[in-house]
Amino acid sequence: MASMLQPQIILLKEGTDTAQGKGQLISNINACTAVADAVRTTLGPRGMDKLVHDEKGNTTISNDGATIMNLLDIVHPGAKILSDIARSQDSEVGDGTTTVVLLAAEFLKEAKPFVEDGVHPHSLIRSYRTASSMALKKIEELAVSIEGKSLEEKKQLLSKCAATTLSSKLIGGEKEFFASMVVDAVIAIGNDDRLNLIGIKKVPGGTMRDSFLVKGVAFKKTFSYAGFEQQPKKFLSPKILLLNIELELKSEKENAEIRLSDPLQYQSIVDAEWNIIYDKLDKCVKSGAKIVLSRLAIGDLATQYFADRDIFCAGRVAEEDLKRVAAATGAAVQTTVNNIIDEVLGSCEVFEERQVGNERFNIFSGCPSGQTATIVLRGGADQFIEEAERSLHDAIMIVRRALKNSTVVPGGGAIDMEISKYLRQHARTIAGKSQLFINAYAKALEVIPRQLCDNAGFDATDVLNKLRQKHASGEGPNYGVDINTGGIADSFANFVWEPAVVKINAINAATEAACLILSVDETVKNPKSESAQGEAAASAMAGRGGPAMRGRGGRGMRRR
Ligand code: ADP
Ligand code: MG
Q1: C-beta neighbour count of 421 within 10 angstroms
Q2: How far does the centroid of ligand 1 lie from the alpha carbon of residue 396, in Å?
């Protein structure tokens, strides 16, 4: 009773919403599980796709964890962490985005009964961290290096990795076709870190198989004026001039005030304007370039002028395309036409304008520096090509990672099962509660093979039992789910390979996220942000109310 009489201590502003303790932690865990459930079915070669459409009517069909998480627009503060790790996995490694979300949620799910039983989260966190660092060490041990192989062999290994990434995507049916294309593209740009040197151009229509790789640059024909049709459309080893200036007849009198005393002088001003542009064009022609590209407009006069001299020109070329042409052909973008020396001109073996579907493309191939590649993607629906582009991006990232770190691990859940077994064995050697926690961590790792089975319609319990037995016997450390038969198979022998960095990053990020969520025991909602939200809602209401009110007023007026 005495305690009731004590004055209440007010610490936070009125209206502050706090949730704390075990209940809060459990609710965060539940939120994360709910998020993982949203992407669960997309994992693996038999995973399903998600169609997300927003209020603007944009539809996206995707299998990529990061893309889906982005589109989901999660508002739960705890669950947001999962979308963050998916995004960071996407930018770090490019693949394994579903994996990372599933792992994090599974670590939490396994921790939940302990939390409910009153285990202090920090005991769990400590054990999880130990387990994670042991797992990472084990992966590094198990990873197979592809260093020291010949280029041909390397190419084959890399395309296996790319094929594994692509097998879970919409374009999985043509994975070999695209995998070798991706590997060629990545090898073409060499060690350059600039990802945008690989361009992906999307041309709706045709079939996937009509997609092709240009070892060089390709871009859609830009807007052109009359006279363009008379220009030649194919050159062998032409010189290329890149400009960042307008080649148009400008009305110079708009830029300056000109006073005339004699009407006859007017003609001289008009002549001067023409002379300026002719002078510019003449300098371009004299440079010896056969192809003139500009970031800015090339007008009708210039187009005709070039056509008469058998020169090809294109204006309003997108900046990124121009940069890639520059990188590929060795040309430097000019901001003036004075003193164009030979060194600033680029060259390539073949330039041609070619029809692709119902678009015309300017294609530069056989470029001297060779450090660019362009994939021209074909396919039916827009959404399909968009998803194909995202999938290729994943594959490109994977190949680049594999090329850099040059270690691979068996996929299909094989590496996950092997680490799980290793951790279970380790758990048996230690005493105390942490034995249980490390076991929980080990069990959580099995979510990958289990989900692969579930998504393919296999009996997950059956397959997992076989896998556990195989791994425990020590005979098949590389055995994973066989997606074709519903049994188990040697993932290495089946060429289901993943760069080790995908797994390393995924386990690292997922453990960190799980520990982060476990260490939160209180959420405080600032009343200020709530009232700001309230205001926004109120103004939205007013906005909706406004026209309605006016509408009624209007009717009233008419009646009168
Ligand atoms: P993520 O977004 O995590 O990359 P994916 O949908 O791409 O998710 O699925 C990747 C998982 O599918 C990996 O664990 C990989 O080992 C597995 N996988 C890919 N191809 C095969 C295959 N042919 N057989 C078995 N498992 C595969
Ligand atoms: Mg993937």
Answers
A1: 22
A2: 16
